[in-house]
Amino acid sequence: MADSQAAVKQGETAAPNKAPEAATSAPADGGTKCKNLEGAMGGMRDPSKTKEQEESDEEECDENELEDDDDDDDDDDDEEGFMGMLQNFLRTKLDLGGGGEGEKVLDEVSVEGVVKYIKSGKCKNIITMAGAGISTSAGIPDFRSPGTGLYCNLEKYNLPFPEAIFDIEFFKVNPKPFFVLAKDLYPGAFNPTPSHWFIRLLHEKGLLLRHYTQNIDTLEHVAGLPAEKVVEAHGTFRTSHCIGCQKEYTQDWLKEEIFKDLIPKCEECNNLVKPDIVFFREDLPAKFFELTQSDFPKCDLLLILGTSLTVQPFAMLINNVPPSCPRLLINREKAGSGDPMMGLLHGMLSSSGLALDSPRNIRDVALLGDCDQGCAKLADLLGWKDEYEKLIPCKAEKGEKAEE
Ligand SMILES: [Zn+2]
User: Of 178, 140, 283, 285, whose CA–CA distance to 227 is shortest?
Assistant: First the structure.
């Protein structure tokens, strides 16, 4: 079931939900223009800059990294040497980036070990953290990869550059491209993937503490997760607000406007109405900050699904679980192995990223490959296969929809 679904659009999708992923890098960035940080934000471009400006910024950044003044080359070398020494010192003396300092929970640091742990009944507060990878098999088109989507459609959407579509300042001046795209990608046109159904199953089993998603496609809701179980870190299409008087509008109202090819305007003050998704230069929802503080210390298993953990502050959440809490990454490639120095800069001495390749790793496991297949494997190993497949709407029906 998962196989056929995954095969439908594999390789050509990475989801529009990647855009707000990127969008959040703006508030998270906090104005820092250091290359390392920008890299950590997923390599997204600042929409206010041309490529040339950016390249020259990057050069400046290389030169000025971690120092205030312009120095000559010799000083740069000294600086690198010093930073290298400092890093080594911290790694050895402060035990950074080597793995867990918590208690060993898994008998075996493997998928089987995680399965055994879940089956033991000791794990009751699972947090799932998801990215675009859990929605790719829904057929949500990738607009960010060169050669597809927006990169071929700059004319259709009348954009100066692809990311402008999620830039709040651009939106205020020219909202039309966003609403044309919103119509094309309107939630409801897509079905939840087997990965979404797996998260629903965790909820059914009473094991899900919370689902944190970077996606804005609302597919977790379509899969029947209750609203209080979901934190949409990058916002949602389910509600909208007037950017002037803040009057709230429903999804139905917005949908009607969008499908009539109108620019949604506030009935009270005639300002623009925008879905509550996080644009560039906008803050993340308050719910994100409130719940992460109370949830993560309680977490006893972290499942990271379909995200490369490149966008902050979402990616950093993996460090907020207790030091003994096992973390399972289900993703196409390894991710989240943080730089100890970055952890230090963020004020987290204890842990920085997944310790997948560390010899002292006692809790981090990667199940590499397609997210849907990973979830199916997990369900199978847990002995939940029948229940899981019953949850997923019939394969034939989905196959037809995918072909339409
Ligand atoms: Zn208004």
Answer: 285
